[in-house]
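pls ignore typos typing on phone
calcium ion + seq
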Amino acid sequence: MSAKLAAALLVALLLPVPSMAAQVIVVNGDPPGVGFNDPTPAVPVGGNPGTTVGEQALYVFQTAAQIWGHRLVSTQPILVISFFTPLTCTATSAVLGAAGANWYFANVEPAVGGQALAPDTWYPAALAEKLTRQDIVADPNDPYEVFSVFNSELGKPGCLTGRGWYYGVDNNEPSTNIDLLAVVLHEFGHGLGFSVGPTSSNTGARALGFPSIWEGQMLDTTTGKRWIDMSDPERAASARNNQNLVWAGQKASNVVPSTLAFGTQVNVLEPASLGSAEAVPASFGPQLRPGGVRAALVAPDDGGGGSTRDGCEPFPQPGLIAGNVVLMDRGTCAFTVKVKNAQNAGAVAAVVANNTAGPLAMGGADPTVVIPAVGITQVFGAALRVAAPALVHVGRNVTVRAGTVLNFPRLYAPTGFAQGSSVSHWDTSATPNMLMEPFINLDLTSSVKNPDDLTWSLLRDIGW
Ligand SMILES: [Ca+2]
Ligand SMILES: [Ca+2]
Ligand SMILES: [Ca+2]
Ligand SMILES: [Zn+2]
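k done
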């Protein structure tokens, strides 16, 4: 039995990539003059010897295919149809790429030496062929196991203007460019099976009533139920249960301690009844020192604007702040503006409470910020505000790894459902940043495996 999620049918030449373990073959799906066929001259960059934009793009894809090929074990070649096409974007945000298994298979009998699939369960094509040890041909005119598309407009006016692809293969992209190799590795990861598959993450509905192979490892830590045991509405609710949906596979859990860093927390020393809660370090400003910050937490009025709690105005009474940790609410102005206002008033650290569910991961950049800042949940922020002034320690949590619950890594399940991102990614609270988070980060390596990354361990949990 087979199911198709999306079509990708621009066929051109086959480009085999030699590899030790599984053959991952990039199929150039671009029409003349576009993407892999872009004849624009280019200067070799970051280990990529190509002398046209098209050659450089192909070199990046073949590098990604090789990295995956060395990891995967399969007797069956994995055909990846790839092309560049305009995808959704604005001057400040862009869909970089999209990919998936080109087919899902269920109830396919194994060939000699192959393994049986779990009954009535959808498998991504490449994995189904690996396990059953055969070429499962659903449609001879569409033989690809993986399809992938990438944004052809990146860096052009109106599409992350000026921030085009980086074609080097050395993880050394300038902060103004997007590392194509990381994006290709990410998208191929989806195509190989890093996805909830034909089960709708939005409605929880299953294709033909069969679960996907993912559902057995998707655990909702609020209800204690796995997706495989839920009704459609329960799955839809779980997909929005921010911070509480995890991947409960054993292999991924095993490598959490070697892959993810210890988390950060705000621990309330006085009044002790408030306990402690997870905090997410901001992407700007200094890191917390190893011992963290121990000081009084205060929540003074900023004296102006739509809210006196948002820290968007310079604090009128710096005397209330000097030497203390300042609590502010998310909203109205950039995170860097709030933290800078706290710093200017003499604060030693800043804590910003979310205005929606989940811990707050603060982005932005301002090299003049010299105090550490962390984001917390709206609920914990409200409790702290009531208790202020309170004595707090902002520092490392030495028992819980960042981005985990019960030592299981979180899946991305924001309260506001995000089509194309929800569920089939790691949560952004993972630290260091993981390849399969929904947003690209500058600090990714080209590794898909522990101790750098969790992707490979998740794929092993589903049978790779
Ligand atoms: Ca095949
Ligand atoms: Ca204000
Ligand atoms: Ca992260
Ligand atoms: Zn993705």
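The chain has eight helices and 22 strands. The domain at 262-401 is CATH 3.50.30.30 (Glucose Oxidase; domain 1). more later
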